[in-house]
């Protein structure tokens, strides 16, 4: 059962449907529930909205995919109604909802808190994808109260969705995600906020860098204020350290001397070092893919033909980015492939008439 059929709840439901599970869905927002059902994520829980009636047969597992502040009350309500045998949540913060659940007197033998480290800047069931969790870490924060069968059920959910369960203490989880998710979110918002006053010339010169740095700034502010306030101290600590680096960089740039520039370069080098420590998509070291660039005319069907050519050459495309300037009839497609395949793909595309530089 999925309670809360937004981006994460519907994605979990779709992944479990692909594995052949029967899934019941509920959401207090009737439109979100209807869309999740239409997308094939499962059937609406008979009885409708959450607080109506008691469900007859408990589900094996209920996933509470609601905002962090709603986790504990939703758990209490679901347990009172006997909706499931075991329960988990997916909230981006773990310690505070767990404390709230304990304070409300929830049955913590039947609850293991969880957090899939996958998502997007979009919200709601329309952005849901069955493959969202493939190869991603999924934090599990079992308390000493949790029954072994509850831990097994929640670990099984993470695995069935294609993710890698990572068992971690709730407070440690919250400090970790402050560093790798929550503080970066605020930094992204701060950079994007500078653009509110930008003129058309500046906006017209935007490239991929500013898009990359600000992608997550497009997220739902109501969800994120809930996440940040529930993890305030760890996030503030990281932001203070980032703010110090930025203030020092600004003052060095104002100084303008060669010596000062060298100190700015030190920050850039630390940036290279930090970035290289982020694991790749399957959790191991970042694979060293080769990039094949293709100049593509902006016309219907072009991408499909390139992908088909890659398929004919037997080359798997690991990642794709498209760089295009507004108002220009061309774009540059970047195909990430294993190094052994790069030359074969480039030759195939050139033979079919595309311009492949290099
Ligand atoms: N957005 C993301 O990328 C990620 C989000 N999360 C966590 O997943 C949870 C859900 O986030 P999203 O799916 O992104 O949000 P969403 O806004 O797409 O979906 C949340 C759904 O919960 C429903 N809801 C809210 N309060 C409710 C309540 N009291 N009872 C029943 N339904 C309720 C809403 O109607 C909505 O359909 C949050 O706790 C978030 O921290 C975790 C990983 C990634
Ligand atoms: O969009 C992205 O790249 C994200 O990183 C999304 C995300 C948002 C919240 C989480 O708790 C986990 C992941």
Automatic annotation (TrEMBL):
Record SUPFAM superfamilies: 6-phosphogluconate dehydrogenase C-terminal domain-like, NAD(P)-binding Rossmann-fold domains
Listed EC numbers: 1.3.1.12
Gene Ontology biological process: tyrosine biosynthetic process
EC class of the enzyme, as a word: oxidoreductase
Superkingdom as given in the UniProt entry: Bacteria
UniProt keyword list: Amino-acid biosynthesis, Aromatic amino acid biosynthesis, NAD, Oxidoreductase, Tyrosine biosynthesis
Pathway: Amino-acid biosynthesis; L-tyrosine biosynthesis; (4-hydroxyphenyl)pyruvate from prephenate (NAD(+) route): step 1/1
Single GO MF annotation: prephenate dehydrogenase (NAD+) activity
Residue ranges annotated for the Prephenate/arogenate dehydrogenase domain, each copy included: 1-286
Enzymatic reactions: prephenate + NAD(+) = 3-(4-hydroxyphenyl)pyruvate + CO2 + NADH
ACT domain residues: 291-358
InterPro entries cross-referenced by the UniProt entry: 6-PGluconate_DH-like_C_sf, ACT_dom, NAD(P)-bd_dom_sf, PDH_C, PDH_N, Preph/Arog_dehydrog, Prephen_DH
Protein family: Belongs to the prephenate/arogenate dehydrogenase family.
Name of the protein this chain belongs to: Prephenate dehydrogenase
């Amino acid at each position: 059962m999925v309670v809360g059929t937004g981006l994460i709840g519907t994605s979990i439901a779709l992944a479990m449907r692909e594995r052949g599970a029967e899934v019941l869905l509920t959401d207090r927002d009737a439109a979100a529930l209807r869309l999740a059902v239409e997308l094939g994520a499962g059937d609406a829980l008979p009885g409708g909205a959450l607080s109506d009636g008691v469900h007859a047969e408990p589900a094996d597992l209920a996933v509470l995919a609601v905002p962090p502040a709603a986790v504990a009350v939703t758990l209490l309500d679901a347990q009172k109604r006997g909706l499931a045998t075991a329960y988990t949540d997916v909230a981006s913060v773990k310690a505070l909802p767990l404390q709230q659940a304990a304070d409300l007197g929830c049955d913590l033998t039947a609850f293991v808190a969880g957090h899939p480290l996958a998502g997007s800047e979009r919200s709601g069931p329309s952005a849901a994808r069955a493959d969202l969790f493939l190869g991603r870490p999924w934090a599990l924060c079992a308390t000493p109260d949790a029954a072994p069968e509850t831990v097994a059920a929640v670990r099984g959910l993470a695995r069935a969705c294609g993710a890698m369960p990572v068992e971690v203490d709730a407070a440690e989880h919250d400090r970790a995600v402050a560093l790798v998710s929550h503080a970066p979110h605020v930094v992204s918002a701060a950079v994007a906020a500078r653009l509110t006053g930008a003129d058309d010339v500046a906006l017209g010169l935007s490239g991929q860098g500013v898009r990359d740095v600000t992608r997550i700034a497009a997220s739902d502010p109501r969800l994120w204020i809930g996440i940040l306030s529930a993890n305030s101290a760890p996030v503030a600590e990281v932001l203070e350290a980032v703010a110090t680096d930025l203030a020092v960089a600004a003052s060095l740039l104002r100084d303008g001397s060669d010596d000062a520039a060298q100190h700015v370069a030190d920050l850039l080098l630390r940036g290279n070092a930090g970035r290289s420590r982020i694991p790749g998509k399957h959790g191991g070291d970042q694979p060293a893919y080769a990039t094949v660039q293709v100049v593509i005319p902006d016309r219907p069907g072009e991408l499909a033909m390139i992908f088909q050519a890659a398929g004919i050459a037997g080359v798997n495309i690991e990642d794709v980015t498209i760089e295009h300037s507004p108002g220009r009839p061309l774009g540059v497609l970047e195909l990430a492939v294993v190094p052994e395949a790069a030359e074969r793909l480039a030759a195939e595309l050139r033979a079919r008439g595309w311009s492949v530089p290099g």
